[in-house]
Amino acid sequence: MPDLTAFPRTAWLRAERTVLNNLSAADFGYGDPRGAPALRLAIAHWIARTRGITADADDVLIVAGVAQGLGLLAQVLCDNGISEIAVEDPSSLGARQHLHDRRLATPPIRVDDDGVDVGELVRSGAPAVLLTPAHQFPTGVVLGGERRRELMRWAADGGLIIEDDYDAEHRYDRPPVPALRSMLAEQVCYAGSVSKWLAPALRVGWMLVPSRYRDEVVAAKRFADLGNAVLPQLVLAHLMESGEMERQLRFVRKRHRRRRDAMIDALRTHLPDAVVHGAAAGLHLTITFDAEFSDLDFAAAALEQGVKVQPLSWHCQRPMNPGLVLGYGASPASDIAEGIAVLGRLRR
Questions:
Q1: DSSP string, 36-47
Q2: Peptide bond before 332: cis, by omega within 30 degrees of 0?
Q3: What span, in angstroms and rounded, lies between the C-alpha atoms of 144 and 180?
Q4: Strand 160-164 to strand 128-131: parallel, antiparallel, or no bridges (unpaired)?
């Protein structure tokens, strides 16, 4: 979760008034199921500036967060005879659950310090893979250059990459890495949202779907809900095109970095045997232990003490060292220090 107290309420209200003052009566009717043209254009400009992706507004589909987009794409892939999508291991439990809900298998592909093991992906025979290459969830590693080249060769031979760019905006100690979509557009389905830098409650995300699946995904979106609510889309488009979103990102990035630093300091003090992963970017840290114990029990004990963490094993399909996934974006530094101290007492 991002820092929800940092939501730009004043800027949002100001933009909403501006949008409402310029809407015609006809704008309150049913809109394009692909999303409001103004937001699709703003997204095309945004990902060109921030992710190096060249796209037209017609390439962009607005969805109710990446979760809906993944479900729609999974439905279309099933209809086209695809029965499995490989996933990183570890990877998001929630994403796997969405794929399983669409009757898709999720064969695990090992992740190491350079990202997903492309050789294992090739050997798996899976026709598609879901990746978080800019900041792997939950390990935080970045897909390395040689792995990117291997992955591009795999995709050029017909493999489909689903790129979840879920928190690429939050970087602290490293430069941005290019989106895979910028390198091989017709083999990459790109997904992003505002959930990690504005608020998940807005339920606004976007997808760029390869042309061979685009019409079917748009049809699935139309039958799902006739399109997202238009007013929030137009407000967001106004904020993006006015430069307000760049200012917001700069603001929250500083807050999130301070909270990350507070968590790292607390971990050094209270959990010195924990190995910290993924500190250079994102909204969470993953810690692992070279020991044998149940991270499920550890997380349950922490919850009883009022500290909510995720056991790393939730996100693993194969056995790994015990660990925890710790979000810092939504908590002030004092709460972070107190929570890590509780974890330290439990560990001892």
A1: -HHHHHHHHHHH
A2: no
A3: 12
A4: parallel
Question: What are the respective helix, strand and coil percentages of the chain, to the nearest 5?
Answer: 50, 15, 35
Please give the single-letter amino acid code of residue 255: R
150 close to 117: Cβ distance less than 8 angstroms: no
86: tokens are 């490989």
| 8 Å CB contact between 323 and 288 | yes
Whether the bond between 272 and the residue before it is cis, its omega within 30 degrees of 0, is no
Q: What is the pLDDT along the chain (348 residues), one digit of tens a residue?
A: 899 999 999 999 999 999 999 999 999 999 899 999 999 999 999 999 989 999 999 999 999 999 999 999 999 999 999 999 999 999 999 999 999 999 999 999 999 999 999 999 999 999 999 999 999 999 999 999 999 999 999 999 999 999 999 877 777 777 778 899 998 889 999 999 999 889 999 999 999 999 999 999 999 999 999 999 999 999 999 999 999 999 999 999 999 999 999 999 999 999 999 999 999 888 999 999 999 999 999 999 999 999 999 999 999 999 999 999 999 999 999 999 999 999 999 999
Q: What is the CA radius of gyration of the chain?
A: 20
| Burial degree of 12 (CB within 10 A; 0-12, 13-18, 19+) | buried
Helices (H), 271-332: 295-304
CA–CA distance from 52 to each of 60, 129, 179, 285 (Å)? 15, 22, 7, 26
